Input
Amino acid sequence: MKKSTYDDEQKDASHSVLLDHNLFIVWKPEHNLGIPIIDEQHRGIVTIINSLNFGMQHHYIEDMLAPLVDMMYDYTRIHFRVEETLFEQIDFPHEEEHKKLHSALASKLGSIGNRSILSKDAHEFMDFLKEWWINHICAEDLIFRDYMNEKNETR
Output
């Protein structure tokens, strides 16, 4: 008896809907900052965003919204603490400014997330996450990466 494999299942037309599904954010090598723990956590954030998007597309976001908001809030607190620990370790000159950004993001994440849960509408929360991805993770965090790279080159 032949054991079924993922490749065999891919040939089954019933799986084509799931396999053809597009992700909201596709992780690309240029998203890596070169700091393994931060890159791993950023991928986790992308996973949560993609899960939210999937729920929105398939019209069962009401079941997913509160857990995803909580997950993003908790995960973000952990992520910010890790980043801030690294800032301290390398004497990052923009540490205080970046910490203030983290504080503002966490506050907005909480208020927008709660508003979305109460309204049972994820669109505002998704818009916030999209902006955060573009403006903070793909821009502000590059300043940190560049400083780390400079610091490593001078050693």
